Amino acid sequence: MKPQLYIFIAMIWCIKPASAQYEFISPAPGSKFHNPECTIIIRDGSLIDESTIRNPELFEVVGSESKTHVLDIKLADDGKTILLIPAQPFVVSEEVTVTIKKGIYKLSGEALNEYTFNFYTRPHRTIEAEQQFAAYRKKVLLEDFGVQEETGFDDPQEGNGPFTINVNINPAPGDLFYHHFSLLGYNIDQAQIMTSDGHFIFRHESQEKGLNFDLNRNGYLTSYNETTDAYDMFDSSFNTIQSFKAANGYITDIHDFLILPDGHSFLIGLDYQVIDMTVYDPDYSANATVVGAILQELDASQNVIFEWRSWDHIEITEALHETLFFGFIDYVHANSIDIDTDGNLLLSCRNLDQVIKIDRATGNFIWRLGGVKNEFTFLNDTLRFNYQHDARRIANGNITLYDNGNYHPVKASFAKEYRINEADMTVSKVWSYVHPFINGKPVRGFAMGNVQRLPNGNTLINWGSIYAGTSLGKGSPNLTEVDSLGNIVWEMTLDESKKGVIYRAHRYSWTPCARPSEKTLKASNITQSSVKLSWGHATNATGYTIYYKKVADSSWLTKSSPDNIKLLNDLAPGTKYQWFIQSKCDTNIIPLSTGSKVKKFETLPLRIENGVDIAVTCKVYPNPVNAWLTVSGLQEANVSLTIIDAAGCQVNAPVQNSDQQYQIDIRHLSPGCYFLSITSERFSKIEKVIVF
Q: What is the 3-state secondary structure (H, E, C) of 302-356?
């Protein structure tokens, strides 16, 4: 069979969308190659009555080898998506049958349809195959990111990543966010925030984490952590507060990660499968390792509520530039995710020369732009684009991308802007920029790169891997900012001797009024009527507002604090409360992240003995005080009395006990506000004390 015919062969395991009875089902009915750890996702599209899914007998999941599975049944935070999480993984090479029985109801009162479907787990992998997958992954990273661990040059005096700002003529407002590393393993590996004049606001050096350093959609900073195979998220005080990994047994891909203000996040997973290539040519008997792309949406609790797999939608033969019988095929190579204006998903697939739009509800294609299965007519761009990166929908409704142009007749890279007409399925190139030749050669990034349209109309272009330091790329810039007419207004070149490159770069106007990091929020010394709230310092904060309320209430109460601690009094006993902290900043700073994550605490119940509340009998006096503080009326065993200063630190205060009356010596304390913590086996209380 001739190679040019491969493109027309349909994959025998390419699966059609889920049953019309349901909006979305994952794994797709009849689909193959699933990891044993996979979660089952069922979505009708309507709001579900959560009380009706609690009966485990309404769902049956049976593996042909692993038999009936016990399930953790959840309703995701959208109120529509049912998650079936097996208590034990499936086994390899088995058929799994899922049955949805009658008895599940929507909030409208309508019952869900009964439905049965099956899917198949992946074959067994030998240790040798797993080692081969790891080697192939390193090969892809080497080709795409230039990582050569065996080189390992140590050049600490140059570790700050030297650069030259070639042009600085009225660039757009804001600072540059990027990760700078070396193509050849020099000791340069830094996440950086830099002004247009070249001054660093932030710089973090690490060999394992920092790649794709960015300010994400929820106002937090994120970067990829190679050690944990996850994306880390940290606040503007640079505290790591959360990590995100691909679920269902997949490897977290390095190329992109989005997290939205509502906590939903999107990432790419990698899936290595050994495919029998006789499907494409019966005369060719060898297998090949093929990399599939997995797109996942996680809700705020990091449950997978959407999963799109290239195996179910895209044929291997669509990868025109891949050699199908080479033994390793990276046939999709997804490298950017974007949320379209209608809430659906845009995915850039480099090795398909294609940008695809995916229905976020169903997982079906809405359209495919470029590549073998292109559905659009290009009106004025005969080159089209290939091996592209960073497809983004911008404010004017158009799409920008970085056209690496590896397969253009003249190998130059472009920043491009397209107008997409989905009604008549046409696409027009409305703007394009190619850099003037440097030393007689075009500026070309064979991998990496991105394009950012800035609020003032300028465009920031990161040229990616430009063969820095070689004859092909000598003198080429790494970052260029141009105005709408293509005039260069800012440009930077990294030190060529270190083979420095940048995967992505962005410019943001970012003076955060930071929120306190979630991990620093603590509720302690909880009593029947009080609680001590504390939190970590937030960048640029000059004070804080504490919001709190009973869980059942709709309105928030507020208190102010100039520092990082606050005692709340007059709370109801035995009651659940919610709280969060909002930073106060100088009036000339525009808040980007205003409120911390909402936390909870519960006050202690009333301690009633012989009809009397113990808290009522406990008295603290005099208050204010300047010598001895008395605690009386506490008929309790194992009483502990502790004085705490306004910073939350325990201070020395001798205690004398006489017949359940306690005397605390505070004569040595400086005037100010303190807290008395009273605890026993059955009782606790915090009392505010003024020392004069």
A: CCEEEEEEHHHCCCHHHCCCCCCCCCEECCCCEEEEEECCCCCEEEEEHHHCEEE
Bridge-based pairing of strands 608-609 and 24-26 is: unpaired
With bands split at pLDDT 50, 70 and 90, how would you rate the model's confidence at 647?
confident
- Least trusted range by pLDDT, from 344-348, 418-422, 449-453, 534-538: 534-538
User: Is the pLDDT reported for residue 634 higher than 60?
Assistant: yes
Question: What is the percent of the chain where pLDDT is above 70?
Answer: 88
HSE, side-chain direction, 13 A CA sphere, residue 284: 18
The candidate with the shortest Cα–Cα distance to 414, out of 457, 451, 379, 441, is: 451
Does the domain at residues 3-32+36-120 carry the CATH identifier 2.60.40.1220? yes
- Mean pLDDT value across residues 289-301: 95
pLDDT recorded at residue 141: 66
What single DSSP character describes residue 133?
Answer: H
More confident residue, 200 or 380: 380
Find out whether 4 and 372 touch, Cβ atoms under 8 Å.
no
**Residue 146 CB neighbour total at 10 angstroms:** 20
Tokens of 466: 């430009």
- For residue 256, give both structure tokens: 């992109």
* Token digits of residue 21: 């009875």
- Tokens representing 143 are 């080709």
Q: What phi, psi does 272 have (nearest 5°)?
A: -95, 125
Please check whether the two domains, 518-602 and 608-691, share a CATH topology: yes
Contact between residue 480 and residue 463 where contact means Cβ atoms under 8 Å apart: yes
Domains of the chain, by residue range, sit at 3-32+36-120, 127-151+164-188+204-508, 518-602, 608-691
Q: Which CATH class is domain 127-151+164-188+204-508?
A: mainly beta
